[in-house]
Write a structure and sequence with these properties.
The chain is of the alpha/beta class and 388 residues long. Helix content is 38%, strand content 18%. Helix 4 runs parallel beside helix 10 and helix 11 packs parallel to helix 13. It binds pyridoxal-5'-phosphate. Pyridoxal-5'-phosphate (PLP) binds next to helix 5.
């Protein structure tokens, strides 16, 4: 273990099981460790560095803002925050944005909107938010309660009440839970990321959406991982021909700086008023300037290139030796390997490719602008490791 790794082990809370690698620099989708070894980064900080490491346009936008104002309280106006909100609304047809600092906080805002909307409209017994089994919505006490995985629920009892879970891709089970609980809202991920890169069926999502519309139950989408071009559409719900009442996003939005956004349709834009919600760092001008430089580039042509790269990866991996199945959308890819996923990840790391896991699968979330050369090199390594 290097001196740095010993120091980290001694002083940083042991909540992470880190690999014995220290990353010191990088460019695009290539990163370097302290010994100068190069890796192709197929994880992009868990889908965060949307345009890779040290992207020039992002760097320029961030450093220009850094030299003007690094932070201002939400008592005053700043340009990047307003610009980013406008850009998100223009690109989605939504009406209002609340900015926080993370995915969990963006989901907290969705939860608050759902509770207030339903209490105002239907009465205070309509507070339950239904989510899907195997979902992941964050690590605050309320977003843990929202997360549909028992494993996360055991440790920190009592969690926030008012959450229930239903089976993914099972419309009748969802309708049963929604009606039994007098639900305020349904919250889904269109592709369950942490849950194993599981894509929801189009029929299921559309049926659920129609039921929620008919019964004035808010339909909310967690786009923290799937958003901002990751699946080949700007937001994953766009693949499904539906428009949520509100959605959350974070990860890739900031291109590497912490930001989360709760995006509201006309139906709920006025639910939160003066003093109902807030965040000291939310809408930070440096984070917002970085996010503007990311979102500005996610046009139709660029999104098509993400979809194309994703299709290429699928074709390469499907039916390859040692690979049982491939799931996902765009550049959000889950690989069920014959060998344990963690063994594949470790062997790939040896050979200079950084991959992630999600449940029993190897997960790939490369930068959206990864070059075809790097992508080919990485996929060749992954295929060779799986075939051995
Ligand atoms: C990562 C993730 C979160 C939590 O985001 P943080 O920024 O870690 O709080 C929530 N929902 C989904 C779908 C995620 O992938």
């Amino acid at each position: 273990m290097s001196q740095l790794q010993q120091m980290d082990k001694a002083f940083v809370s042991g909540t992470y099981n880190r690999f014995p690698v220290s990353i010191v620099s990088g460019k695009g989708s290539t990163v370097y460790d302290e010994n100068g070894k190069a890796y192709i980064d197929m994880g992009s900080g868990i889908g965060v560095t949307a345009f890779g490491i040290a992207d020039e346009k992002w760097n320029a936008a961030v450093t220009a803002q850094l030299q003007k104002v690094q932070h201002m309280s939400n008592l005053y106006y700043t340009e990047p925050c307003a610009k980013l909100a406008q850009l998100i609304c223009e690109k989605t047809g939504m009406k209002k944005v609340f900015f926080g600092n993370s995915g969990a906080e963006a989901n907290e805002c969705l939860i608050k909107i759902a509770r207030k909307y339903a209490a105002d409209k239907k009465g205070s017994d309509h507070f339950t938010i239904v989510t899907l089994e195997q979902s992941f919505h964050g690590r605050t006490l309320s977003t843990l309660a929202a997360t549909g995985q028992d494993h996360f629920h055991q440790l920190f009892q009592p969690l926030t009440p008012g959450f229930a879970h239903a089976k993914a891709n099972d419309l009748s089970d969802c309708i049963r839970v929604l009606s039994e609980t007098n639900a305020a809202a349904m919250l889904i991920e269109c592709v369950q990321g942490e849950g194993g890169v599981r894509v929801l069926d189009k029929e299921f999502v559309q049926g659920l959406y129609a039921y929620c519309k008919e019964n004035d139950i808010l339909f909310l989408v967690d786009e923290v991982q799937t958003g901002n071009g990751r699946t080949g559409q700007l937001y994953a719900y766009m693949h499904y021909g539906i428009t949520p009442d509100a959605f959350s996003t974070a990860k890739g939005l900031g291109g590497g700086l912490p930001i989360g956004a709760c995006v509201m349709s006309e139906k709920v834009e006025k639910v939160l008023g003066f003093g109902d919600h807030g965040s000291t760092f939310g809408g930070n001008p440096v984070c917002c300037a970085g996010a503007v430089s990311i979102l500005e580039r996610l046009d139709a042509g660029f999104l098509a290139s993400v979809a194309e790269k994703g299709s290429w990866v699928f074709a390469q991996l499907k039916d390859a030796p040692g690979i049982e199945s491939v799931s996902g959308m765009g550049l959000m890819i889950g690989i069920k390997t014959e060998k344990p996923a963690i063994d594949v990840v470790k062997a790939c790391m040896e050979k200079g490719v950084l991959c992630l896991t999600a449940k029993e699968k190897v997960r790939l979330l490369p930068a959206l602008n990864i070059s075809m050369d790097e992508l080919k090199e990485a996929i060749d390594v992954i295929k060779a490791v799986c075939a051995q």
